[in-house]
Amino acid sequence: MNMPAADANRVLRVARPIDGLPVAEDFAVEPLPMPEIGDRELLVRTIYISIAPGVRPLLPYKGEAPDVAQGAGAGRVGGADDDVPNPTRIGIGERMRSGIVPSMSKFAGGTVGEVIQSRHPDYAPGDFVFGGRYCQLYEAIHGDASIKLDPAQLPIEADLGLLGRSAFTGWCGYRRVADPKAGETIVVSSAAGAVGMMVVQLAKREGLDVIGIASGASKCDFVQTLGARACIDRKAEDAGAALDRLAPAGVDIYFDNAGGFLQRPVFDRLKPFGRLIVCGMAAEYGGAEQSVLPTGTILGKRLRVQGFVVLDYEDDYPAFREEVVRLWREGSLAYRQQVYHGLEEVPQALADCLSGQSGGGKLLVQVSPDTSVGGRGP
Ligand SMILES: NC(=O)c1ccc[n+]([C@@H]2O[C@H](COP(=O)([O-])OP(=O)(O)OC[C@H]3O[C@@H](n4cnc5c(N)ncnc54)[C@H](OP(=O)(O)O)[C@@H]3O)[C@@H](O)[C@H]2O)c1
Fold first, then answer.
1. Where does the chain show beta strands of DSSP type E?
2. What are the record keywords, sorted (predicted)?
3. CB 200 within 8 A of CB 227
4. pLDDT in tens, 126-180
């Protein structure tokens, strides 16, 4: 394994407060010294970076931050301190994160890459790992907080998509929070996204009547291929009127990934003992929309109209992996991904993810060749 040149590393840093959706000028790609690795650490060449909408509330807002950002907890904005990251904020000058919460959790990461150098007994150069936390080309990561990947079993990027934290979030929300029962009607917003894809498929498999919500005919078609009986195109149709037509008896579970203006019409159609599962509020992160309910507070305080946070379910991660890999091998689970290229494209990918201006599925950014499949990509 050739060591990279000492000046080969690059990082994406936050350059200024962000007004709504991120643009390229809100960030800067800068040189970064090649990390020195300590005991049990790995030097990893990043290949794919996960894009997740939940990183937006951590970024500095231009003007007043929406309620969702307050829900993430108090913290500083503006300090540059790479060594002691504040899990609830990414300040100006700090490194852009891929994973949302840097920690020793095995599922906190947001990149997959190739081990270049190892000081951990379980890893060797040439291994592929999940577990980088930042948008940078080379990263020192702790072997104990990483997962070794087997490219012969699954594509390495599957650990950001099919097995990524978003998919795990969908699994936890469905399995541990929603209390679903066969025959019930479940509505899933952002149904073509990384969380939604998982919820739609699990619910369909288990005999629920699934109605998705997404934007655009192509994503709605995709949601129906996943098993939804119908998918409401939120940009073409009034969601309330569509639900009156599609589910006149009402809705048992609203698995809400979007919050915002979409929430109330579905909430109003919940049956007695219905459940509003507040998973996320992608419509609110940029500050353009608000729910009539304080969704950031519902999620952050885990109130029942039930919010949940995937970090509370770490013990379930092995069960999730086992089930999803089994379903994937059986050919009974689908997923979609869209790949952007280069650190410079991270802001655009995040904006597309937040707004829904993407082809659906999990969004990734590839920043170096994928040597697990013979070096495809940049
Ligand atoms: N609770 C937790 O622990 C936890 C953990 C991870 C993620 N999450 C949350 O789960 C949600 C889904 O995450 P993901 O990674 O799978 O993202 P995603 O669904 O791939 O991306 C967000 C989607 O939200 C939809 N959206 C954007 N603006 C909207 C609006 N104004 N009204 C309605 N829908 C809008 C868009 O889909 P369409 O355009 O197709 O509608 C967009 O693609 C996010 O809110 C995320 O923050 C929660």
1. 10-14, 27-31, 41-50, 111-118, 128-132, 138-142, 147-149, 185-188, 209-214, 230-233, 251-256, 270-278, 337-341, 362-366
2. Oxidoreductase
3. yes
4. 999 999 999 999 999 999 999 999 999 889 999 999 888 899 999 999 999 999 9
- How many CB atoms neighbour CB 237 within 10 A? 14
- In sequence order, the β-bridge partners of residue 185 are 209
N-to-C CA span, the chain: 19
Instruction: Pick the residue whose CA is nearest to atom 20 on ligand 1.
Output: 193
**Ligand 1 centroid, distance to 193 Cα (angstroms):** 7
Identify the DSSP state of 235. Answer: T
For residue 219, the ligand 1 atom closest to its alpha carbon is: 40
Tell me, in angstroms, the distance from the centre of ligand 1 to residue 27's CA.
22
Tokens at 287, concatenated? 């500050």
Instruction: Give the residue carrying structure tokens 């291994």.
Output: 127
**Domains present along the chain, CATH in parentheses:** 10-161+336-373 (3.90.180.10), 165-328 (3.40.50.720)
In this structure, the strands spanning 209-214 and 185-188 are parallel
Nearest ligand 1 atom to the CA of 289 is: 31
Q: What is the pLDDT of residues 294-330, one digit of tens each?
A: 677 676 666 567 677 888 888 998 999 999 999 988 9
Cβ(284)–Cβ(309) below 8 Å: no
